[in-house]
């Protein structure tokens, strides 16, 4: 049996209508390219990515309607080391995503972070240890998000901060550490 420790390319899972989990990926430790998980309607968790600690370019998790959190990415501490400032890290249109638990080890994002159109996102819990984003940060159209708690450690955003269309947002608590 071959053990997959490192991918030197983009790892893309897209349009797999019956994929429910990522069994078989538990030994993957790094991806030099990007991790793109999109359009997998019954994918229920990312648990088998538990050894992944490094993504060199981008992470994009979009249109996965059964994900409720990002548990499984618990070891991921760095995203975008090899990425240009314009790289887009996206968490978008995951219909049952309620929080971002699983990204707790992440401390730095090179490029931008977009958290958009996740209608059941209640909390940004899971982003508690991010201290810097070199590009922009956008939190947009997350219908029931009431605050930005989760960004408590964030001290630097490089190019722009966009908070738009979050209809239940009551305050900006969580951005207190930004200068």
Measured by DSSP, the beta-strand proportion falls in: 25-35%
Distance between the termini: 51 Å
Number of helices: 0
Helix content: under 10%
Mean pLDDT: 93
The total beta strand count reads 14
Total domain modules? 1
Query: What's the assembly state of these chains?
Result: single chain
**Strand neighbour order, sheet with most strands:** 1-3-5-7-9-11-13
Q: What kind of sheet is the major sheet?
A: 7 strands, parallel
Estimated structural class? mainly beta
In one word, what is the shape? globular
Give the low-pLDDT segments: none
Give helix and strand order, one letter per element, not per position. Answer: EEEEEEEEEEEEEE
Rg, nearest Å: 15 Å
Could you explain how this protein is built, in words?
With 179 residues, the protein is mainly β. The chain has one domain (1-179). The chain has no helices and 14 strands. It has strands spanning 6-7, 11-14, 30-31, 35-38, 54-55, 59-62, 78-79, 88-92, 108-109, 112-116, 132-133, 136-140, 156-157, 160-164. Strands 1-3-5-7-9-11-13 form a seven-stranded parallel beta sheet, with no helix packed on it. The termini are far apart. The relative contact order is 0.13. The mean pLDDT is 93.
């Amino acid at each position: 049996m071959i053990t997959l420790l490192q991918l030197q390319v983009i790892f893309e899972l897209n349009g797999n209508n019956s994929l429910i989990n990522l069994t078989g990926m538990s030994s993957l430790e790094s991806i030099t390219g990007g991790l793109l998980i999109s359009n997998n309607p019954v994918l229920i968790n990312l648990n088998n990515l538990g050894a992944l600690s490094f993504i060199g370019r981008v992470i994009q998790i979009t249109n996965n309607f059964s994900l409720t959190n990002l548990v499984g990415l618990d070891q991921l501490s760095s995203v975008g080391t090899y990425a240009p400032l314009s790289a887009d890290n996206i968490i978008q249109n995951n219909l049952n995503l309620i929080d971002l638990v699983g990204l707790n080890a992440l401390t730095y994002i090179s490029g931008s972070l977009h958290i958009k159109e996740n209608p059941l996102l209640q909390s940004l819990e899971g982003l508690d240890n991010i201290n810097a984003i070199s590009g922009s940060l956008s939190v947009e159209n997350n219908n029931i998000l009431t605050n930005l708690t989760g960004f408590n450690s964030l001290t630097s955003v490089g190019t722009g901060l966009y908070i738009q269309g979050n209809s239940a947002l009551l305050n900006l608590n969580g951005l207190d550490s930004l200068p």
